[in-house]
Amino acid sequence: MSSFQELRSYLDALVERYEEPSFIAEDPLGIPHGFNDPRDQAVIGLYAALLAWGRRSTVINKMEALCERMNYRPHAFVADFNPARDADALDGFKHRTFQPVDALWFTRNLSDAIDRHGSIENIFADHLPDDPAHPYPVGPAIQGFSTTLLTINPGTPQRLRKHLARPEAKSACKRLNMYLRWMVRPGPVDLGLWTRIRSEQLMVPLDVHVGRQARALGFIERKSNDWKAVRILTDACRRLCPDDPARYDFAFFPPGAQDEPLDEAFTGDNAVPPSSWPTA
């Protein structure tokens, strides 16, 4: 059986391989990278993250169309959004289950939330728990963000709930955790725009690709890709790198999405599960 140190070295090598600027071009993260103003990056990055399911090339094409609809000034478009004046700009925009009505209400509610809190960063960070010992502070931040956007206007349709994940609904919150990774971690791939949430507080984004890789390595035994599984995976990654657990998204997602086989020295009977790791 391989050792804990060998496992960490293997995963760190995968991170170094994939956390490169070349990753950006074929990823939805390339959309916010195309803007210079951090406010534009934060706004369009949120749309890119929430719509990041399906073929990445399709997502990128949809996001390019949305940028055009926003006149390539996403922050100004959202911050100054007036439904009576601007709704036509979103008419017809859709991606899979995200329909024009969702685009309209999400933009309207995000605009009102930015007006209330001052920025998207503050919408999240204003819901961080006061207890500095809280083990998963990003959970309340995501819950507060989604709840704010779902309740800030009383006429908000219930269908918007499917696009705003919440830990209390047991969702893994993959796309919002990914968005926070983009906004908080420094480059060369992530944007590192925010300071009120720290890298060590981030959760590892969990989807079917990441879950498959993590289970093969023995990091997760739980079958469901839910919030509890996110906590389990993040706990393991914190033991590998306490200051930056979300960095291991680069070790799990790109190889998993590309069906790249893991090194058999760390899977199956050779797995090095967290229960076998040194405690200090």
Automatic annotation (TrEMBL):
Identify this protein by name.
Answer: TIGR02757 family protein
Top-rank taxon: Bacteria
Q: Known NCBIfam families for this protein?
A: TIGR02757 family protein
User: What organism is recorded for this protein?
Assistant: Longimonas halophila
Q: Where is this region: Disordered?
A: 259-280
